[in-house]
């Protein structure tokens, strides 16, 4: 039987056993509603405070600047819609990039329908946003700039500190979708002048369905979920206690291990890239060094990415073509198009994302299988086109 090798950590991660262990208590032992006053509710209230502290300290925020949500998508929606609606008398212009996650892109498209104007900034061939164009795009009616911290498909890390300085100077709010970055690369919202930041627990070994939005003190933003007074009246609904506890624990572990894990993953990533680039007709997508330690995105000449992903699945290797969120759509990846790839090359690309369970043995094994599979698919292609089938 084949080995199962999971190389799709950018799509989601497993939940670490220590995280599950902490969460367990909050399903039956401490199940009280934190809004109630009796003992078991005080325990859940305390647990939320502790988790909020852990999450705040991981990005150098204050505890009262962290608001729990249902995940990265909700945080992105809230940040953009909430700021736009609360400040619309000041202006109606939003700036973002062409390589954002659908949670940002589609929110911006929705805001366009609501009468807002959106600028989608271009990126260079490595996926880095054009800073000069950003500065030129900022006008009197610009309310918010939303630029991701690290890209989910090609792993490129954006110059957020530089962008933060520009936004601060021009007195414009900066939101960053840091879902791929939190727990993986160092973030300091104060040093980087970030006003709003989205994160999601299931991208750093916590449970799914829980995330947070960092909102800097003083930022004017509308509530997104109206109802009770949870999350200081800004996000109603009885708290997902177990999720919150799990998210806090997971981020605490990720922060503690970050340096060591980054070194380990960068080594494995570079080894994988080196091995795959030895296959003729391959090219790396994204930046060579300024990329997430976990991300590999490669194009293979004369190979269809979707077919390669399915063939690798047969071999027990889980990777994705484009990003998981847009899989199923036959369109070439919007991100790969934005860095200047042709439709054909974009469609011949796959993403491998490494993580906590990835070993050097996995890299060697997977690289060999990928090589064999690519050769096999190309041979089949050649047979088809020469009519020898
Ligand atoms: C996964 C992801 C999201 C969505 O997060 P969910 O918690 O799944 O809603 C948003 N942005 C980026 C960059 C992501 O990778």
UniProtKB/TrEMBL annotation:
Q: Which cofactor does it need?
A: pyridoxal 5'-phosphate
Q: Which residues bind [2Fe-2S] cluster?
A: 325
Functional note: Master enzyme that delivers sulfur to a number of partners involved in Fe-S cluster assembly, tRNA modification or cofactor biosynthesis. Catalyzes the removal of elemental sulfur atoms from cysteine to produce alanine. Functions as a sulfur delivery protein for Fe-S cluster synthesis onto IscU, an Fe-S scaffold assembly protein, as well as other S acceptor proteins.
Keyword field: 2Fe-2S, Cytoplasm, Iron, Iron-sulfur, Metal-binding, Pyridoxal phosphate, Transferase
- Domain Aminotransferase class V positions: 5-364
Under what name is this protein listed? Cysteine desulfurase IscS
Q: What NCBIfam families does the record point to?
A: FeS_nifS, PRK02948.1
Which EC main class describes this enzyme? transferase
Write out the residues that bind pyridoxal 5'-phosphate: 72-73, 152, 180, 200-202, 238
GO annotation terms (biological process) = [2Fe-2S] cluster assembly; amino acid metabolic process
Q: Which reaction does it catalyse?
A: (sulfur carrier)-H + L-cysteine = (sulfur carrier)-SH + L-alanine
Enumerate the SUPFAM superfamilies for this protein.
PLP-dependent transferases (SSF53383)
Give the family per the record: Belongs to the class-V pyridoxal-phosphate-dependent aminotransferase family. NifS/IscS subfamily.
InterPro entries, A to Z = Aminotrans_V_dom, Aminotrans_V_PyrdxlP_BS, Cys_deSase_IscS, Cys_deSase_NifS_bac/arc, Cysteine_dSase, PyrdxlP-dep_Trfase, PyrdxlP-dep_Trfase_major, PyrdxlP-dep_Trfase_small
Q: What is its main location?
A: cytoplasm
EC code(s) of this entry: 2.8.1.7
Question: What is the top-level taxon of the source organism?
Answer: Bacteria
- Pfam families linked: Aminotran_5 (PF00266)
Q: Which residues form the active site?
A: 325
| Chain positions with N6-(pyridoxal phosphate)lysine modification | 203
Location of this chain's protein in the cell: Cytoplasm
Q: Would you name any one GO CC term?
A: L-cysteine desulfurase complex
Query: Is Endoplasmic reticulum one of the keywords UniProt gives this record?
Result: no
Give this protein's Gene Ontology molecular function annotations. 2 iron, 2 sulfur cluster binding; cysteine desulfurase activity; metal ion binding; pyridoxal phosphate binding
The pathway is:
Cofactor biosynthesis; iron-sulfur cluster biosynthesis
Subunit organization: Homodimer. Forms a heterotetramer with IscU, interacts with other sulfur acceptors.
